[in-house]
Amino acid sequence: MPVDDRSKEIMDQFQQLLSQPDETSSSASTPSGASTFVDEIYTEVMGLERHGRVRGYGFGLTPTSIFGSTNRMRSRAILSTQLENAQEILIAAKQKFTTTTEELSNVKEELSHVNETFEERLIEVQRKTREEVKEEFEEKMMEMQRKMQAQIQE
């Protein structure tokens, strides 16, 4: 229900243009094409937008007050891009951390194996050294006993 005669005229004109078949545009069959078609009819009925004003929001409102400034939009876009980059860097860092942790675990296992092998060989060397020292000590003792017996027999 229109509020005044001017509104009724606009509504009638809009309905009339909507009911006409669109021979020139085949894009009206797609959802975005239908939206474009309605936008074209709206512009034809209402006229072009006045610079710095937004229809349908009342008096005094500007595109900046409704949609934000282009600087804010750019800032948001920049921040969004920076956030995406930071998230990609974080994902890469997590992957590198995981890889490094796995490599460290492998190195620890290898070091443990080398340490076990070293301890086994050290024990073997100590055992051989004890046997050699014992044999050398026994040989020296025998030699001293022979010398003492030789001196006693003289």
From TrEMBL:
| Pfam families membership | Transposase_24
- Coiled coil feature spans: 76-154
Q: What is the protein's given name?
A: Uncharacterized protein
Naturally occurring in which organism (per UniProt): Vitis vinifera
Domain of life according to the entry: Eukaryota
Classification via InterPro entries: Probable_transposase_24 (IPR004252)
Keywords on record: Coiled coil
